[in-house]
Description:
Number of helices: 4
Helix content: 25-40%
CATH topology: Heat Shock Protein 90
Bound molecules: adenosine-5'-triphosphate, magnesium ion
Amino acid sequence: MRKVTLALPMVPEMEIEASKTAMAIAESMRMSPDRIDEVRMAVVEACINALEHSHASAKEVFVTFEVLGGQDPETLRITVRDTGVGFSPGEIEEPSIQEKLKSARKRGWGLKIIRGLMDDVEIRSGSEGTTVVMSKMR
Ligand SMILES: Nc1ncnc2c1ncn2[C@@H]1O[C@H](COP(=O)(O)OP(=O)(O)OP(=O)(O)O)[C@@H](O)[C@H]1O
Ligand SMILES: [Mg+2]
């Protein structure tokens, strides 16, 4: 299996289903347990963002898993796509721990966490929705 897409309902805990699939595929690639855990957390953050922020009227989030590269090292590419309102990734302020300690808004870490956990992250967003493409080598 080199590519699979899940159409997940916009309900709480769909992120768990997405992360289970991510872990199973990463395991099948023989990714190390630490890296599998990093993939799991990134998938959870991206899916929760789609649930919380997309305000999509369509009630599905599409999560695609692709194993790239015929030989070692393989790369796992995961795409999380919603059809919601979109946002401007370039306008999201980079969170800093000093600012967060002073601020009433403690959140805003998800995208930074995703970027830290995955090797490569690309976000495309507009009025048709948001697509987060994230990859990690085995
Ligand atoms: N799929 C999405 N659709 C629309 N807006 C999004 C989406 N993903 C992220 N955003 C916007 O980007 C902001 C930053 O996302 P990020 O995950 O970094 O923080 P958060 O979700 O607000 O908080 P946290 O992830 O720490 O719980 C969000 O507050 C939201 O405005
Ligand atoms: Mg978030």
